[in-house]
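Let us work through a complete example step by step.
Step 1: write down the sequence.
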Amino acid sequence: MSEKRNGARRQSGGPRKAQEIFDATLDLLAEKGYEGLTIEGVAQRSGVNKTTIYRWWPSKGALLGAALIGARQLELTAPDTGSLEGDLEALLHTIVTLLTTRPASDIAVSVLGAVTHSPELAAHVKDFLADRIAREQPVFDRAVARGEISADTDRMLLVDLLAGAAWVRVALRRLPLEKDFAARAVNTVLNGARVAG
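Step 2: predict the structure and record it as tokens.
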């Protein structure tokens, strides 16, 4: 199967109404969850023939993976505040907003639940996460250039620690996030929790 058809690189190609298809996919996911998401439903909602959708994405997992990367609702622009701490706070604030604002929060929770049961979707979510870390690379490249972190810093681990903290608080513990959550989380990850000696 070609890379064009497997949904991994939807931004560089796709049907003429790709955005409408992606929007319909994420809207239906938010409304009905992964189990209720169907290609037929997406076709009806987007006004596109289902054969067109199947031509580009052979399954709903492939379609959802492409929608996660290509949809406008989940766009990410790497911040540039002038410091690693400020950039990480801005990234974490974006994650928190996605997790606490509908319909993005419904999409995120539905994907989290579905990925544990669908190996196919899990593979497409890996593509989505790889896309996100690639978009975040400029934050870390600038931090290395400024001397804030070493070139061999595990960048993915930094993002995982921060995003994981937000996911656990919001999706699992169902706790409200204080206004200073992002600043405190970034400070703890960058500087640790030990008392300065």
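Step 3: interpret the result. Residues 5 and 57 are 6 Å apart (CA to CA).
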